[in-house]
């Protein structure tokens, strides 16, 4: 499979230079990079049933039961809805992780769907990351209400994203592959604001 | 160039070291940094700024802020902007403007400036940074709460900026410094809150770089919309002074008394040399004293009250100014500019300025937008807040509290209550400045003075007079809303800030009723004009609506595809070669698909993974045909209807396992179908154990079409037995194609032997390039949506949403076979028993062949029965839904929905096109390979 990985093309591979350019143009106030090929499995099951416990035991972390995320090792579980999660793991592990989850839930009613290629992930960092998001996201992103580990499905500008608070004030933006180019256009445009420190306070 | 002859020697909040050049109505002037266009004009002795829109009367600067009714200007440079008030345009070097009588002109060039929007959330929003607002903000900010303060002026201070209250202004500076230094506080100046919506959602516009003129930095947005969600709101929006209706009260040189005070104190401008003051209340006396101190002579104070404040009378008497109690203005002399004022009884006073104060209106617009009620306070003579469903408090003069000490105390209380309500312990704000207040003598409640009602103006911008309001009440109107619409009073750019309550007062006066019973007209957003550019923000051009693209989009672009929008998707339309037009390219692409091999990016099809023990039950209920009998490894076409029996979507269903299916939807309806499924699962059938997951972008899909497609697939998929028996029509196989894990489906949307190759999104380009390479020896041709449409139309396959429009049943399309007679129920079944869905004259999908073999009918063309058109109404038979040139048929053809169409096959009907009626013959919908012999290659 090594050969196959070589020719894989992540949705934002052609935009890598533009994303890196944001960091240099803003002096690091906003940084952007694609995190390609993350394993993503859509998991749906009854949060109060045996499948939930079995998955928690298999992953080593309880499934979050409200907006937020939980991590164990390289696996992060994002809450998408009352009976829906996105299990995110290292690139290339989708087959193995899907098998583990399917074996854990056994005969219980649950669905596991590989959606690794459905969305790509952007890592957003820099001191003005929250200010950038505020230009297109209606959620309250103040650290008091949206911090590390928090997660939400929301709109950023006109694209649906899964927004995840990461360590050190960074964010993941998971965006559908078909919307990724639009979102990059919007992010690069929005970062114009931070290309100079003059008059940008507030 | 004039020399600012009306500038005071010193004082004001302007920077006399920074002179600015500007041009108004073709003449060059100078002002200072810190001026508005209005204050700079007044400093140069210019009062008259415009001519009124209806009556052509000279009009001048009347106010000093957003309430200005007269001084509309058109800014011409650096960028044209119409209908700004001179009182709110901050002066910058190089400003070019002219006065406007009403309407301005929009720029014809694109605006190069950026505009954007930002969301913010706070515990406490304070609207207005005057004394009450700053007191509230100071207390709230000290608690640690998140506070946003917005104010429409260039610096905080509100009404204090127009006074000489040194201690209070020091306090303003300290509070502003505190707020700026607090990381949890945002103090937004030049920001007008213009809309107050449910749940304390307040929208404001910040003018960020307008005041910098041509030197505005390009990377910052010029204007920004703030979308503010606040847990509590404190409205400290202040009060607007109002005028009185008297003869010729619109002459240049007539100005609100408070505005004149602001011009003297804030801008160091003398609005005139010698003034008459007409007032109903005490506030004009303070203005008169400040003007006196600045060097303006006060000819007389005419106070409409029979008994006036002894204290203020004494203060003025000390300065040699006469106060006449119980006197009003009889008339004003001077057209271009006031030259003298005649008081009741005939005494005439020479003056170039007439200061008017008819009382004060608390600014209740935002409060009213929030659903707040207003109550008439007979003592104050104004409408004041009286309860609101939102978590909002009103403080200061917006609440009818006009003294400084009262404003500060009320602001502090409101700020404290707001933070405590959000769970913070109120902090200690800056120590409040001492304010000594003179005892207040009650104001007079006068609206109209005796005189000629045809020249007594109520709304200066709309040229509405007392006479016009009398005409409205004379026709029987009793509601101020009706009077407003009849006369247009209060409908101009200023939305009646100075005239609205006066209008109510005049109506009350004319009808002899209590103004409190009449009320005010309704306040609606926006409080102040907002540019469309600001409202559009970044949502313009390429960012106006997302363009969704497939993994192969860059390839399509690089290879000359022209694109078609399908929903938000951009799909290759056709790939012209060497100067081909649409017609030539599509004929070539069609021929390749029918005669050789062709390929298309079909990745935009919606895809939904349906899993669970009851998955087959769900699909049986959603589709009109039976899905539960589908074997694993097989594929079935299906149609979904709405409960009314009309077609909603179509696509294929692939059975992956006993309890797992992959459903495809039309490109534009993927989200709609998933929502439809979730809706029924969550609300109607929660007992079904099924989960649906969108996988539209997980998979890239490439259609491989044509009699030679099997050869190409065979080359690419050596592990796959591709012969017809091993891999029959409507089955799928998981295999390796070009070294990539792939799912190959044998389905056809063209009638030809065809496959759909599915790989994950990341592998799409590798597969596409492999398919093109493998097909190259056979002349493989890429094709787009136009060719796809022609190929499917030749076979009579409908496009849901093109050949259907929400009024078409499967039976109308001739697809009776897809509606199960056996299933106990499915969505739409009951409607097929309705008499209407069984009518014989329903519109049927049929084929059309123009008799001349040449005319391409326009889609949407109507069809009639008769050879020549009778007098209207002309009975219509139906319309053309799809129309193309066919390479295979060698002629144009069309699909159409025609009344009883299947019973008319062979008949001639007519399409009226311009002046001619084109004869066409009705055929069955399947025009190419009706026997279906080409399907298996």
From TrEMBL, chain A:
Record Pfam families: SoxG
Transmembrane segments: none
Source taxon at top rank: Bacteria
InterPro entries in the record: SoxG, TrmE/GcvT-like
Signal peptide limits: none
Protein name per UniProt: Sarcosine oxidase subunit gamma
Species lineage: Bacteria, Bacillati, Actinomycetota, Actinomycetes, Micromonosporales
TrEMBL record, chain B:
Domain GCVT N-terminal as annotated: residue spans: 552-823
Signal sequence residues: none
Name of a matching Pfam family: Fer2_4
Superkingdom: Bacteria
Keyword Transmembrane included in the entry's annotation: no
GO molecular function: oxidoreductase activity
Domain Aminomethyltransferase C-terminal: 843-929
Residue ranges occupied by any FAD/NAD(P)-binding domain in the UniProt entry: 123-374
Electron transport is among the record's keywords: no
Keywords recorded for this protein, A-Z: Oxidoreductase
Domain spans labelled SoxA A3: 456-538
InterPro entries the record matches: 2Fe-2S-bd_N (IPR042204), BFD-like_2Fe2S-bd_dom_sf (IPR041854), FAD/NAD-bd_sf (IPR036188), FAD/NAD-binding_dom (IPR023753), GcvT/YgfZ/DmdA (IPR028896), GcvT/YgfZ_C (IPR029043), GcvT_C (IPR013977), GCVT_N (IPR006222)
UniProt record similarity statement: Belongs to the GcvT family.
Protein name: Sarcosine oxidase subunit alpha
Native source species: Planosporangium mesophilum
This protein's encoding gene: soxA
């Amino acid at each position: 499979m090594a050969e196959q990985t070589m020719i894989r093309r992540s949705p934002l591979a052609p935009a890598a230079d533009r994303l890196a350019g944001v960091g240099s143009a803003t002096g690091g106030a906003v940084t952007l990079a694609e995190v390609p090929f993350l394993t993503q499995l859509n998991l749906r099951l009854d949060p109060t049933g045996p499948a939930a416990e079995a998955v928690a035991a298999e992953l080593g972390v309880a499934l979050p039961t409200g907006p937020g995320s939980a991590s164990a090792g390289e696996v992060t579980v994002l809450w998408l809805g009352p009976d829906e999660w996105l299990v995110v793991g290292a690139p290339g592990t989708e087959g193995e992780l899907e098998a583990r989850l399917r074996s854990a839930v056994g005969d219980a009613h649950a669905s596991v769907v590989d959606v690794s290629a459905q969305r790509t992930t952007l890592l957003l960092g820099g001191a003005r990351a929250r200010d950038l998001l505020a230009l297109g996201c209606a959620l309250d992103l103040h650290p008091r209400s949206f911090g590390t580990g928090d997660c939400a499905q929301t709109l950023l500008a006109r694209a649906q994203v899964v927004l995840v608070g990461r360590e050190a004030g960074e964010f993941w933006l998971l965006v559908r592959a078909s919307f990724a180019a639009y979102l990059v256009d919007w992010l690069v445009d929005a970062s114009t604001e931070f290309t100079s420190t003059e008059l940008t306070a507030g | 160039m004039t020399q600012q002859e009306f500038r005071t020697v010193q004082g004001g909040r302007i920077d006399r070291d920074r002179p600015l050049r500007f041009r108004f109505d073709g003449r060059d002037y100078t002002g200072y940094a810190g001026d508005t266009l209005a204050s700079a004009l007044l400093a140069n002795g210019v009062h008259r700024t415009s001519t009124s829109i209806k009556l052509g009367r000279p009009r001048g600067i009347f106010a000093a802020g957003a309430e200005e009714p007269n001084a509309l200007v058109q800014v011409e440079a650096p960028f044209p902007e119409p209908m700004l008030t001179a009182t709110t345009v901050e002066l910058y070097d190089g400003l070019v403007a002219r006065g406007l009588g009403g309407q301005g002109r929009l720029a014809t060039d694109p605006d190069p400036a950026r505009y954007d929007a930002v969301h913010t959330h706070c515990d406490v929003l304070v609207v207005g940074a005057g004394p009450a607002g700053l007191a509230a903000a100071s207390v709230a900010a000290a608690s640690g709460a998140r506070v946003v303060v917005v104010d429409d002026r260039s610096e905080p201070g509100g009404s204090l900026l127009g006074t000489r209250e040194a201690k209070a202004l020091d306090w303003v500076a300290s509070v502003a410094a505190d707020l700026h230094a607090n990381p949890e506080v945002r103090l937004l100046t030049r920001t007008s809150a213009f809309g107050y919506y449910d749940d304390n959602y307040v929208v404001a516009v910040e003018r960020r770089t307008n005041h910098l003129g041509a030197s505005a930095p390009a990377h910052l947005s010029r204007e920004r919309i703030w979308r503010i969600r606040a847990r509590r709101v404190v409205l400290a929006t202040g009060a607007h002074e109002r005028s009185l209706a008297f003869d010729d009260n619109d002459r240049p040189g007539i100005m609100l008394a408070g505005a004149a005070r602001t011009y003297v104190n804030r801008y160091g401008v003398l609005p005139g040399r010698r003034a008459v003051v007409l007032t109903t209340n005490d506030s004009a006396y303070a203005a008169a004293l400040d003007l006196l101190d600045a060097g303006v002579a006060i000819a007389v104070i005419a106070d409409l009250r029979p008994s006036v404040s002894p204290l203020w009378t004494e203060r003025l008497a000390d300065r040699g100014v006469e106060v006449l109690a119980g006197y009003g203005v009889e008339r004003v002399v001077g057209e271009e500019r006031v030259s003298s004022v005649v008081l009741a009884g005939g005494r005439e006073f020479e003056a170039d300025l007439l200061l008017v104060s008819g009382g004060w209106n608390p600014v209740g617009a935002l409060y009213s937008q929030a659903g707040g009620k207003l109550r008439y306070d007979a003592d104050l003579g104004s409408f004041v807040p009286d309860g609101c469903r939102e978590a909002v408090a009103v403080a200061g003069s917006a609440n009818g509290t006009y003294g400084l000490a009262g404003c500060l105390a009320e602001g502090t209380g409101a700020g404290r209550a707001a933070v405590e309500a959000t769970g913070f312990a109120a902090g200690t704000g800056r120590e409040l400045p001492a304010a000594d207040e003179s005892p207040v003598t009650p104001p007079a409640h006068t609206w109209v003075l005796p005189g000629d009602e045809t020249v007594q103006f109520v709304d200066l911008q709309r040229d509405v007079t007392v006479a016009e309001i009398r005409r409205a009440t004379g026709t029987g109107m009793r509601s101020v809303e009706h009077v407003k619409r009849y006369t247009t009073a209060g409908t101009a750019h200023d939305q009646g800030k100075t005239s609205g309550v006066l209008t109510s007062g005049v109506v009350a006066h004319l009808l002899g009723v209590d103004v409190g019973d009449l009320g005010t007209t309704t306040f609606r957003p926006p409080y102040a004009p907002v540019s469309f550019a600001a409202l559009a923000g970044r949502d313009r051009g390429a960012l106006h609506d997302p363009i969704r693209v497939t993994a192969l989009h860059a390839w399509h672009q690089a290879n000359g595809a022209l694109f078609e929008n399908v929903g938000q998707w951009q799909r290759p339309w056709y790939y012209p070669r060497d100067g081909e037009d649409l017609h030539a390219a599509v004929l070539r692409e069609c021929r390749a698909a029918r005669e050789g091999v062709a390929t298309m990016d079909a990745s935009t099809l919606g895809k939904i993974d349906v899993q669970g023990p009851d998955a087959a039950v769900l699909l049986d209920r959603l589709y009109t045909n039976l899905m539960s009998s589908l074997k694993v490894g097989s594929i079935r076409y299906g149609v979904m209807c709405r409960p009314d029996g009309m077609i909603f979507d179509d696509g294929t269903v692939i059975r992956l396992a006993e309890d797992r299916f992959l459903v495809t939807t039309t490109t534009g309806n993927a989200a709609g179908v998933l929502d439809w499924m979730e809706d029924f699962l969550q609300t109607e059938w929660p007992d079904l154990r099924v989960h649906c997951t969108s996988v539209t972008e997980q998979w890239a899909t490439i259609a491989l079409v044509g009699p030679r497609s099997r050869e190409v697939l065979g080359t690419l998929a050596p592990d796959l037995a591709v012969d017809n028996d091993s891999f029959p029509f409507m089955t799928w196989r998981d295999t390796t194609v070009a070294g990539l894990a792939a799912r190959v489906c044998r389905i056809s949307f063209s009638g030809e032997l065809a496959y759909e190759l599915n790989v994950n999104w990341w592998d799409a380009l590798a597969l596409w390039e492999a398919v093109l390479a493998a097909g190259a020896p056979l002349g493989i041709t890429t094709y787009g949506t136009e060719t796809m449409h022609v190929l499917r139309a030749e076979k009579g396959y409908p496009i849901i949403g093109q050949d259907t429009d929400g009024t078409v049943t499967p039976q109308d399309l001739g697809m009776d076979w897809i509606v199960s007679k056996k299933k106990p129920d499915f969505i739409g079944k009951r409607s097929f028993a309705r008499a209407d869905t069984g009518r014989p004259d329903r519109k049927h999908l049929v084929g059309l062949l123009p008799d001349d073999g040449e005319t391409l009918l326009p889609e949407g063309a109507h069809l009639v029965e008769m050879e020549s058109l009778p007098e209207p109404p002309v009975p219509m038979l139906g319309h053309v839904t799809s129309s193309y040139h066919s390479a295979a048929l060698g002629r144009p053809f069309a699909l159409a929905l025609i009344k009883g169409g299947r019973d008319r096959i062979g008949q001639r009907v007519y399409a009226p096109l311009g002046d001619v009626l084109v004869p066409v013959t009705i055929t069955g919908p399947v025009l190419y390979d009706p026997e279906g012999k080409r399907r298996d290659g």
